[in-house]
Design brief:
This protein is mostly beta strands. The chain contains one helix and 33 strands. The strands form seven sheets. Strands 3-4-5-6-33-2-32-31-30 form a nine-stranded mixed β-sheet, with no helix packed on it. Strands 1-29-28-27-26 form a five-stranded mixed β-sheet, with no helix packed on it. Strand 24 and strand 25 form a beta hairpin. The longest helix has 6 residues.
């Protein structure tokens, strides 16, 4: 079964400092602009943005230098993607201090936030293939665990922490799910597929893991029962935005898919939500029935004109920004240059205008 639902809040803004990921604390979100490496904060009730401070690390361009941040007490940790180290902004002193990272081969670090647990910040570096743990009290790296030294293995874009265990995917000639226990600092690896493919998203519904990537189906793995299932009821409705040819292609018509279908997946309100990478639809799947639904966003219809109008750094469909109260999903549209606030439970409709406040 394939269902279509219409329900979202559309948040239009006068000025858009967009980011890869926003960090929510009470009614304030903190984020670093992808385009110019500046730290901002926003009041989600008033919709007002505020310039905080520019990071001092520069390069040929500032694109995605530190697009992920995490706040802890009076410090905001800015995690590197193309940048070279972790920058910590102190609210009281109004300055940055750096934690340097060992990167002998100068790879793109691509550090992702996982969770805060017992005064520690757990992160994973896709480029270094490492779990990096930061002691928040001492503001220093406590330990590093290397997940792979195999040059043929790629780490999935998404990793998640459930309780005291970090889960992720290592892709090579096989698909390997790793489990890293943060207490024992030991890792367990399980082969769940002997097929060469690339899975880049992983989510957990309390019973099963859901993996998506370059396949025309989503892999559902019940680890306790050792059962693997596949969901593909969305393929005939999904299209890929081809920015090289400036056209929209049906996924079902393609012999092979060379890029992941989705950039993020997560479990909310009894459903697994899949956020598009360069596909055209936000879909969700009921965890019990595996019925597939589509979130109808009328302004997001794509054609060769809309695709040609952007590209370069804007050749994505959506970014997942943050989640409120395990219910409200906030995504950013590259096409409309706006945020959609999706109520994953009741799907109410309304609109809100946000403002930008520059006070420094």
């Amino acid at each position: 079964m394939y269902d279509v639902k219409c329900g979202y809040v559309m948040m239009l803004i006068d000025f858009l400092p967009d980011s890869d990921c926003m960090y929510l604390e009470d009614c304030t979100v903190w984020f670093v602009s992808r385009l110019d490496n500046i730290l901002f904060k926003m009041n989600i009730k008033s919709g007002e943005y505020e310039y905080v401070k520019a990071l001092s690390e520069h390069g040929p361009d500032k694109w995605r230098f530190h697009p992920v941040c995490v706040k802890h007490e009076n410090n905001v940790y800015c995690l590197p993607d193309r940048g070279g180290g972790i920058w910590i902004y102190n609210l009281l002193r109004d300055n940055f201090e750096q934690i340097k990272l060992d990167n002998p081969n100068s790879v793109r670090i691509r550090m992702k936030y996982l969770a805060k647990y017992k005064e520690r910040l757990f992160t994973v570096s896709l480029g270094l293939k490492q779990i990096i743990v930061i002691n928040l009290r001492k503001q220093e790296i406590e330990y590093i665990y290397t997940l792979s030294n195999n040059g043929d293995e790629d780490l999935s874009d998404n990793n998640l922490m459930v309780g005291t265990v970090i889960y992720g995917i290592l892709n090579s000639s096989k698909t390997i799910l790793y489990e890293f226990n943060v207490i024992s600092q030991k890792v367990k690896k399980t082969i769940i597929s002997n097929k060469r493919t690339f899975y880049n998203t992983i989510s957990f519904d309390g019973d099963k893991f859901w993996l998506s990537g370059t396949e025309k189906e989503i892999l559902v793995w019940n680890a306790k029962k050792g059962i693997i299932e596949y969901v593909n009821g969305f393929i005939n409705y999904l299209h890929i935005l081809n920015f090289k040819k400036n056209c929209v292609e049906s996924v079902s018509d393609l012999a092979e898919i060379y890029e992941p279908l989705f950039t993020k997946s997560l479990f909310l309100s009894g459903k697994i939500w899949f956020i598009p990478f360069r596909t055209d639809k936000v879909i969700y799947i009921n965890k019990n029935t595996h019925e597939v639904g589509e979130l109808l966003l009328p302004l997001e219809k794509e054609d060769k004109t809309s695709i040609r109008a952007r590209g370069g750094l804007c050749n994505y469909k959506f970014f997942l920004e943050y989640v409120i109260a395990d219910r409200y999903l906030i995504i950013y549209s590259l096409k409309m240059e706006c945020h959609y606030i999706i109520d994953t439970l009741s799907m109410n409709d309304e609109k809100r205008l946000s403002k930008f406040l520059l006070n420094k």
